[in-house]
Amino acid sequence: MSDARLALLAPYNRWMNRRLYDAAATLSHEALVADRGAFFGSILGTLNHLVVTDTIWLKRFAAAPDAPAALAVLDGTPMPTALDATPYATLPVLRERREWLDDVILQWAATLTPARLEASLTYTNTRGMGFTRDVLGVVTHLFNHQTHHRGQITTLLSQAGVDVGVTDLLAMPPDPD
Fold this sequence. Notes:
The chain contains 6 helices and 2 strands, in the order H-H-H-H-H-E-E-H. The protein has 177 residues and is mainly alpha-helical. The chain has a single domain (3-171), classed as dinb family like domain (Four Helix Bundle (Hemerythrin (Met), subunit A), Up-down Bundle). It is globular, with a radius of gyration of 16 Å.
């Protein structure tokens, strides 16, 4: 992965999140919280999971000795303790947080120089186990994890009668904002 690829993945991440939230907004609150048998139960549960895990990873990066200033905005954000937490009970409040996180991700991704990507990240997971991983691998995981669960959400939305449309990276407009 290079800086150019990250410059593509971060905007794609935001573009697809906006599309998912637009699609989800067409459903009632009851439909959003209905247990659909997914890993995190409902559409809202799965959307919360992505916000929780992105927060966890960004806070881990923010705690690194060479953390970019772009992550200082996370200082007042508590570290989630459970991957299945649902800190946002309604879609509008969750969407506001998702938009904020996507802005943080865009600013942070712009700081990922080749030297930063070649470094290591040492962190503790939610079970208290310590790890050291390649930054490039963790960054790749962050974006891949988003794609994985957005795929689940598009399936859940489709089962609820909502068509998200084409989700391919190549379908993103040249300037999605």
